[in-house]
Design goal:
The complex is a heterodimer of chains A (274) and B (462).
Chain A lengths: L3 H19 L3 H39 L5 H18 E3 L7 H20 L5 H23 L3 E3 L5 H4 L1 H33 L5 H15 L9 H40 L11
Antiparallel strand pairs in A: 1-2
Helix pairs in contact in A: 2-3, 3-4, 4-5, 8-9
Chain B lengths: L1 H36 L5 E7 L7 E7 L13 E9 L1 H22 L4 H24 L5 E10 L4 E5 L16 E8 L6 E3 L3 E4 L11 H22 L10 H16 L3 E6 L6 H20 L3 E5 L2 H17 L11 E3 L4 H15 L3 E7 L3 H11 L3 E6 L5 H7 L2 E4 L2 H10 L2 H30 L2 H5 L6
Parallel strand pairs in B: 9-10, 9-12, 10-11, 12-13, 13-14
Antiparallel strand pairs in B: 1-2, 2-5, 3-4, 3-6, 6-7, 6-8
Helix pairs in contact in B: 2-3, 4-12, 5-6, 6-7, 6-11, 8-9, 11-12
Classes of the chains: A mainly alpha (274), B alpha/beta (462).
Chain lengths: 274, 462
């Protein structure tokens, strides 16, 4: 039963998804959208699992003093700070005691981590537990007494709040852009390796790549630029596109085949059973 | 005095009459000139329910105005109008009121607003119920509203409304609707109205005829898959071409074992419902089983919490099947982040710190493919990749030792397992590809001979 029920569910819902593709009626769309909503709901619960996994792995890394363990504190601090900023926003012009609250809450989380790291008993554990209790009480007291800011659990005010946007726009975005910018250098090193003329096919690749790259070179003499552009367009639109279409047809058939196997219960790898 | 007054009055009278006559003549001339500028109206306007859709949509066709591209050549565009009851405005206003009250209630915790919100909600509900009757009351209680436009020369338009009652573009199904089409000149005030067409009703269909060819193809292909799986089960010997990338997996795991270094398995940025990710789960299961048998360390950083949960289950089952449950570590499959480049930073960091002997990338990849694969190459790992993202395949080819191109990713699980029933589906794929090649050549021939009936068979609409 433990194995048959999921397979039966996959069969029923898989078949429905095929059915709804050919049935445009509103009733079919309604059921389809209802099922998609369920994916969202499951996703929200899964985020909690993801956060727990990240927290657990970070604690394990700190405990084992693995290389770069200090950064785990940064990732956990960042995780909880952004959750806090996303659920809070000021109500007036002043932040009041908000930053004391944020500091107290993050220190309480830090103290909880220390409690988890400091073993079953001992003086360090007692100190960590006392610190957890103190900072938690302090954070709750500030939250209750200070009305210059408030929690927004059901609306999006938190995501528009100054702290959330500030950290996202001025910390996250530049870091992510830096990672993306590395791609330029990686493309250069990958191209260098790929374009070495080791055999006939690699030489053809090198020549084709040169023509495609030179398409944008503005200083060709004798009108050669026009020929470079035309040859480049031909390379992109004929041999390249033909190869891509062949791959796309193969992918399409592979997708349908895998889907049929999943719906019929032939392929069960996703259930942990090969 | 009396003698001078009479001629003066007479003069004034005549002047007044003359002026009035001039004005009347000017008005009449103006009317005549506007009438002369009016374009010929569109003719033969037809409105009908749009085919193969979910309803809430009407299609209109007409014949061009005589002054569109001919005659006075004054028609620049066509504007389509639908008769709309005022009730739609009232509903829109009340929706706005309801939303404002809700926002106010959320921000102030004022419970007294609840009853007002309920009153507005009740009005909206009754309004939606009365909407059909309001449309049927044509021409009382409504006006013509523009719902679309087309450039001159065009003769069809689809007035696709929203299916949500909440939307201002909502078109109710099974309700009498009326349309007209105006031929418009450069001066938008100078236009000719067509005859009013209606009543016409929209409704949803139970079968999308535009996708019939897809249904037939899927049924034929499904039949082939089931047939070859059945043949494979009966013990038929099915030969499938070996894939270098798959055969390298065992060697790569052996290498990691000899070096005492971990194996990094990356599932990509896809979600659990992507076919590429589903195929990757199967490959992960096979890899994890070998890893468990060889007692090597496995690292699976994931970018989606659902993918993480499924991957944990897959790896756990693989360790169980290998009889090495004691070696299974739950943290070997862990969540990193859903942000693309933050994920890259974390995985690259893992590669450079732990220097895995083998990196396996299977699933859906985007711009992060080269960042990951190049870092892996720099770290000296053996790399095997597979993706169905066309744009990323070249990056993997240049940076990895082995690459599964497109459909090979889906075939990999069957190759790794060498199970007859999975190999059966590969055989079906091969026959389907052969059929596609034959049909492509037939299409080429027919298109060149002008036999469009053959190529028309494969047109998928909507």
């Amino acid at each position: 039963m433990r194995r048959q029920l999921p397979l039966a569910l996959v069969f029923v819902f898989g078949l429905f998804m095929v059915f709804q593709f050919f049935v445009p009626h509103e009733s079919s769309e309604w059921v389809y959208e209802y099922l998609l909503d369920w994916i969202l709901i499951i996703g929200i619960f899964a985020v909690a699992l993801g956060i727990w996994s990240l927290f657990h792995v970070s604690i394990a890394r700190i405990r084992a003093r693995k290389e770069g363990w200090q950064y785990s504190y940064v990732s956990i601090g960042g995780l909880f700070a952004m959750i806090l900023f996303g659920f809070t926003a000021r109500t007036g012009d002043s932040w009041g005691l908000y930053f004391f609250f944020a500091a107290a809450l993050l220190l309480a989380i830090g103290a909880i981590m220390q409690t988890m790291l400091s073993g079953v008993s001992g003086k360090q554990r007692s100190i960590s537990m006392a610190a957890t209790a103190f900072f938690t009480v302090l954070a709750v007291a500030i939250a209750v007494l200070d009305d210059s800011w408030r929690f927004y659990f059901y609306t999006t005010e938190g995501q528009e709040s100054f702290m959330f946007r500030h950290f996202f726009d001025h910390v996250m975005i530049p870091i992510l852009s830096t990672m993306f910018a590395l791609l330029a250098f990686f493309i250069a090193s990958a191209a260098y390796r790929a374009f070495r003329a080791r055999n006939l096919l690699a030489t053809l690749l090198l020549i084709s790549a040169m023509i495609v790259m030179l398409r944008f070179f503005p200083y060709f003499p004798f009108g050669l630029g026009v020929y470079a552009a035309k040859t480049s367009s031909w390379l992109m639109n004929v041999p390249n596109l033909a190869a891509q279409r062949a791959i796309v047809i193969g992918i399409g058939l592979g997708m349908v085949s895998t889907s049929i196997k999943v719906v019929l219960g032939i392929e069960r790898g996703y259930m942990g059973k090969g | 005095m009396k003698h001078t007054l009479v001629p003066l009055l007479s003069l004034l009278l005549f002047t007044g009459v003359a002026l009035a006559q001039d004005e009347l003549m000017a008005d009449s001339l103006q009317v005549d000139s506007v009438a002369a500028l009016l374009p010929a109206p569109v003719t033969n306007v037809r409105a009908f329910d749009t085919d193969d859709d979910h309803g809430h949509s009407i299609m209109l066709e007409w014949e061009l105005s005589a002054d569109d591209g001919a005659g006075k050549e004054s028609v620049l565009s066509y504007e389509v109008f639908r008769w709309t009851p005022y009730l739609m405005d009232s509903l829109g206003t009340n929706r706005g009121l309801r939303d404002s009250l809700k926002a106010l209630a959320d921000s102030t915790d004022d419970n007294s607003l609840e009853s007002r919100i309920e009153t507005v909600e009740a009005y909206l509900e009754s309004g939606y119920d009365r909407l059909s009757a309001a449309y049927t009351a044509y021409p009382e209680g409504g006006e013509w509203r523009k719902v679309g436009g087309k450039a001159s020369g065009e003769t069809t338009i689809t007035n696709a409304g929203a299916k949500e009652k909440e939307s201002p573009d909502y078109i109710p199904d099974y309700t009498d609707l009326y349309y007209r089409v105006d031929a418009v000149t450069v001066d938008t005030d100078i236009r000719s109205k067509s005859n009013i067409v209606g009543p016409v009703q929209s409704s949803g269909q139970w079968f999308n005829g535009g996708r019939a060819v897809v249904l037939v193809s899927v049924l034929i292909f499904a039949f082939l898959v089931i047939l070859f799986v059945w043949l494979a089960k009966r013990g038929s010997d099915l030969y499938v071409r070996p894939l270098a990338g798959i055969e390298a997996v065992d060697d790569a795991i052996g290498r990691a074992t000899e070096m005492g270094k971990p194996i990094l398995y990356v599932l990509g940025l896809g979600v659990a419902s992507d076919i590429a990710t589903i195929a990757s789960f199967t490959i992960l299961g096979r890899v994890a089983k070998r890893v468990a048998e060889y007692q090597t360390e496995l690292l699976v950083p994931t970018a989606d919490p659902i993918v993480m949960s499924v991957a944990q289950e897959v790896v756990k089952s693989a360790y169980m099947d290998a009889g090495r449950m004691d070696d299974y570590k739950e943290d070997s499959v862990h969540f990193v982040t859903q942000l693309q480049f933050a994920y890259v930073a974390a995985v690259n960091g893992q590669m450079l710190r732990q220097l895995p002997a083998t990196n396996i990338y299977m699933g859906k990849f985007f711009a992060e493919s080269l960042l990951l694969a190049e870092t892996g190459a720099l770290a000296g790992s053996i790399q095997i990749a597979g993706t169905d993202e066309i744009a990323q395949i070249p990056f993997f080819i240049v940076a990895c030792d082995y690459t599964l191109i497109g459909e090979e990713l889906y075939a990999a699980s069957a190759y790794l397992g060498r199970e007859a029933i999975l190999l059966g589906s590969l055989k079906a794929q091969d026959y389907a590809k052969a059929a596609v090649i034959v049909l492509a050549f037939a299409g080429l021939l027919c298109a060149n001979l002008g036999w469009s009936w053959f190529t028309d068979l494969f047109i998928v609409t909507n």
